[in-house]
Amino acid sequence: MAFSKLMTIFLYSFTLAFLIQTSFGADPLFHFCSNSGNFTANSPYESNLKTLINSLIYKTPSTGFGNGSSSLVQNQNQQTYGLALCRGDVSPSECKTCVSEATKEIQSRCPYNKGGIIWYDYCLFKYSDTDFFGKIAKTNRFYMWNLNNVSDPSTFNYKTKDLLSQLAQKASMNPKLYATGEVKLEESKKLYGLTQCTRDLSSADCKNCLDAAINELRNCCDGKEGGRVVGGSCNFRYEIYPYLLKSN
Ligand SMILES: *[C@@H]1O[C@H](CO)[C@@H](O)[C@H](O)[C@H]1NC(C)=O
Ligand SMILES: *[C@@H]1O[C@H](CO)[C@@H](O)[C@H](O)[C@H]1NC(C)=O
Ligand SMILES: *[C@@H]1O[C@H](CO)[C@@H](O)[C@H](O)[C@H]1NC(C)=O
């Protein structure tokens, strides 16, 4: 099991390394369908999921985060839980576009799965038939990296880890569980970092989640000009170019 998960991460990362060069912001980065079971068409679960999705599309954009659960039918097995999170610099209208697209896309990719997760540059959406709020998601992670190598990996890796560790601390102290920052590299280059957690986590768990992701830097993006470790509860990104939206 552990082996096949690692393989999945590896194989998909490999594919993504190629995708990353051709994809645009509006395409999903990645998704997983859960294997917790299927629902049937026109079932109470389906109707609860649709209600949940509509409420998240409505309530997420104003703050960039929404969570909720839905069980119109009083039946334990039909309850669905979900959340949506937009990247911290994304405007309410872009957030709404992204969450709408994400919920539509995951339903077409995992049509009858009781759970799933999908990531975009601007947002993530996940849903499940079990209550996951406040718990760090340890499975369903993926890596992305820039194919270009840096010229001085040991200094670069050190600076990257140092910046991201500071941003993990900073994000955990921000009510939005989000932080960005930059440091100077040699010549006029800069390193741009971002950390973010889903807001169902406590401050301490946000820090724990990010520290665990940062510990994967070596596996993910050792000596690479850019990289991300992305999970269901937190993610980081670093690049040597600015990627945040300028208008915000
Ligand atoms: C769920 O549906 C998928 C196809 O959408 C199918 O491959 C899978 O076997 C089903 N799983 C269960 C537990 O019925
Ligand atoms: C980066 O380094 C790896 C390992 O040394 C090498 O295989 C790869 O071709 C390099 N990538 C580029 C873009 O030069
Ligand atoms: C959102 O998540 C928190 C846990 O962080 C939970 O206490 C709360 O009930 C959830 N909200 C909804 C509407 O489900």
Characterise this structure.
The N terminus is likely disordered. The chain has 248 residues and is α+β, with helices and mostly antiparallel strands. The protein folds into 2 domains: 104 residues, Killer Toxin P4, Chain A (2-Layer Sandwich), CATH 3.30.430; 98 residues, 2-Layer Sandwich (Killer Toxin P4, Chain A). Helices cover 39% and strands 23% of the residues. The protein has 6 helices and 10 strands; from the N terminus they run H-E-H-E-E-H-E-E-E-H-E-E-H-H-E-E. The strands form 2 sheets. Strands 1-4-5-3-2 form a 5-stranded antiparallel beta sheet. The radius of gyration is 18 Å and the shape is elongated. The structure holds 2-acetamido-2-deoxy-beta-D-glucopyranose (3 copies). The site of one 2-acetamido-2-deoxy-beta-D-glucopyranose has 3 residues, from loops. Keywords: Repeat, Secreted, Signal. One of its GO terms (cellular component) is extracellular region. InterPro entries: CRR_secretory_protein (IPR050581), GNK2 (IPR002902), GNK2_sf (IPR038408).
Task: Quickly list its features.
single chain; 248 residues; Killer Toxin P4, Chain A; 2 domains; five-stranded antiparallel sheet; 6 helices; disordered N terminus; binds 2-acetamido-2-deoxy-beta-D-glucopyranose; GNK2_sf; secreted
